[in-house]
């Protein structure tokens, strides 16, 4: 089950049916199963408070991924700051929805086992993001 919700911000114009299909495809491509996912769209203020409360980090970010995966079931909560996604889309001169899709799949890739703690790991997850974004275009 995938649930898309918003907190303290206007819900973005997304095709949730297409995104659900895409996320499920990516999870299955990694030989895993869908458990329960919540994708919460929020403001910078909301994500900063969550970052401070749960991770003891005092900075803004585009996404926080809470991993509740068990066995081969992918479950978790993705908190996505639409404010930061928007500012990143302007900074990198990419479409807002393209940047939002990249952030969503970044969180999903964390849940299926990728990390970004080293330069090598960041290159790998970026490549997986690009592959996943290409798949989205074909759906």
The helix fraction, in percent, is 40-55%
Largest sheet: 4 strands, mixed
Mean pLDDT, all residues: 96
* CATH class category: Alpha Beta
> Are there runs of 5+ residues with pLDDT below 50, and where?
none
What structural class do the secondary elements suggest? alpha/beta
CATH superfamily caption: Metalloproteases ("zincins"), catalytic domain
N→C terminal distance: 19 Å
Question: What would you call the shape?
Answer: globular
Summed up, the domain count is 1
Number of strands: 4
Read across the widest sheet, the strand sequence of neighbours is 1-2-4-3
CATH fold-level assignment = Collagenase (Catalytic Domain)
Task: Indicate the radius of gyration in whole angstroms.
Answer: 14 Å
């Amino acid at each position: 089950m995938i649930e898309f919700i918003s907190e303290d911000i206007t819900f973005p114009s997304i095709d949730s049916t297409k995104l659900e299909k895409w996320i499920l495809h990516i999870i299955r491509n990694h030989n895993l199963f869908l458990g329960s996912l919540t994708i919460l769209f929020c403001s910078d203020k909301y994500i900063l408070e969550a970052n401070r409360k749960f991770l003891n980090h005092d900075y803004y970010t585009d996404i926080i991924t809470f991993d509740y995966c068990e066995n081969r079931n992918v479950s978790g909560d993705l908190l996505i700051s639409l404010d930061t996604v928007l500012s990143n889309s302007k900074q990198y001169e990419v479409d807002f929805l393209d940047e939002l899709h990249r952030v969503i799949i970044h969180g999903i890739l964390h849940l299926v086992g990728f990390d970004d703690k080293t330069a090598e790991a960041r290159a790998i997850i970026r490549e997986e993001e690009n592959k996943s974004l290409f798949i989205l275009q074909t759906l």
